[in-house]
TrEMBL record:
This is Malate dehydrogenase. SUPFAM superfamilies: LDH C-terminal domain-like (SSF56327), NAD(P)-binding Rossmann-fold domains (SSF51735). Residues 7-146 form the Lactate/malate dehydrogenase N-terminal domain. It comes from Actinomadura hallensis. NAD(+) binds at G12, A13, A14, G15, Q16, I17, G18, N106, Q113, V130, G131, N132. InterPro entries: L-lactate/malate_DH (IPR001557), Lactate/malate_DH_C (IPR022383), Lactate/malate_DH_N (IPR001236), Lactate_DH/Glyco_Ohase_4_C (IPR015955), Malate_DH_AS (IPR001252), Malate_DH_type2 (IPR010945), NAD(P)-bd_dom_sf (IPR036291).
Length: 329
């Protein structure tokens, strides 16, 4: 039986993450090896030609699951009928730009994109915001899509989650496949908190197994939280293939479910769980099933974790206040 293609809209399609992401979507890694996809790409007018070049290459791969590609420089058209939207394109911070300037510039992108999603996306739309500052950009888009359930707007902390798995696996000398229940709390920024107190290595508590507070505080947490900056320093450009890979993981897990006995990290709209103010888009441990996510409840949060979660959440509250003052939400 031929399945109806799923419409996937990708913004920033001509950028470096876009280039690493589109081929994986078209090959079936985003939704499943039996799910045909139709791509709708959004770019700014100056980058449409480059997006057309990428579309030519996508054609040249002859992916059996790719049923069509359309390219737009108009958000309203790009999100028409979208079932999945990957909001990658954003205004990068440039020299001399204050945080307020960055939030304002991105408000100019994510407000109309939220409105376009509200106006024309499919009823089952799922949105992942990758473009930074991802949590607050997701909040801006969500606030301008009043007819779309708020739980459809998420921001990406799966890259941080994957980075934490990699660092812990090296320290413990195990495969990442042996680690379960990693958590990233808070903002996708240097204040994020990668939490191993609930993580398990081969079924045993990870913090107890590693038993190294100095490594935890002075190596693991700063390495994960500042990895984005370290990649920029080393590569001369921000992470691209790993960010694309994490976006694939995020959507695949959201659609296809978390494994029994495990969870993932997603920045989702807070319902007040774990003292995170309602409405903020903050990273939590979540399970997914049948295309829906749920925040894992009932975890005991120790003092060490509490202080770090609170610090990252305070930053998110400040960002929300800043975009409120700018009239963006
Ligand atoms: P890039 O500069 O290579 O590409 C961005 C693309 O977005 C460009 O082609 C640009 O033309 C396009 N764009 C800009 N405004 C647009 C708009 N209004 N509509 C559509 N397209 C638009 O950047 P990149 O390396 O691909 O990174 C994209 C974003 O992802 C950045 O904000 C980056 O900081 C962020 N990022 C997030 C994570 C995460 O974990 N959440 C990780 C890595 C990067
Ligand atoms: C990352 O975590 O790699 C990026 O968010 C860094 C950045 O500022 O683009």
């Amino acid at each position: 039986m031929t399945r109806t293609p799923v419409t996937v809209t990708v913004t920033g399609a001509a950028g470096q993450i876009g280039y690493a992401l589109l081929f994986r979507i078209a090959s079936g890694q985003l939704l499943g090896a039996d799910v045909p996809v139709r791509l709708r790409l959004l770019e700014i007018p100056q980058a449409v030609k480059a997006a057309e070049g990428t579309a030519m290459e996508l054609d040249d791969c002859a992916f059996p699951l790719l049923s069509g590609i359309d390219i737009f420089d108009d958000a309203k058209k790009a999100f028409e009928g979208a079932n999945v939207a990957l909001l990658v394109g954003a205004r990068p911070r440039t020299k001399g730009m204050e945080r307020g300037d960055l939030l304002e510039a991105n408000g100019g992108i994510f407000k109309p994109q939220g409105e376009a999603i509200n106006a024309g996306a499919a009823d089952d739309i799922k949105v992942l915001v990758v473009g930074n500052p991802a949590n607050t950009n997701a909040l801006i888009a969500q606030q301008h899509a009043p007819d779309v359930p708020a739980d459809r707007f998420t921001a990406m902390t799966r890259l941080d989650h994957n980075r934490a798995l990699a660092q812990l696996s090296k320290k413990a000398g195990v495969s990442v496949a042996d680690i379960r229940k990693m958590t990233i709390w808070g903002n996708h920024s240097a204040t994020q908190y990668p939490d191993i107190f609930h993580a398990e290595i081969a079924g045993k508590n990870a913090a107890e197994t590693v038993n190294d507070q100095d490594w935890l505080e002075n190596d693991f947490i700063p390495t994960v939280a500042k990895r984005g900056a370290a990649i920029i320093e080393a590569r001369g450009a921000s992470s691209a293939a790993s960010a694309a890979s994490a976006a694939i993981d995020h959507v695949y897990t959201w659609v296809n479910g978390t494994a029994e006995g495990d969870w993932t990290s997603m920045a989702v709209v807070s319902d007040g769980s774990y003292g995170v103010p309602e409405g903020l888009i903050s990273s939590f441990p979540v399970t997914t099933k049948d295309g829906k996510w749920e925040i894992v409840q009932g975890l005991k949060i120790n003092e060490f974790s509490r202080a770090r979660i609170d610090a990252s959440v305070a930053e998110l509250s400040e960002e929300r206040e800043a975009v409120r003052k700018l009239g963006l939400i």
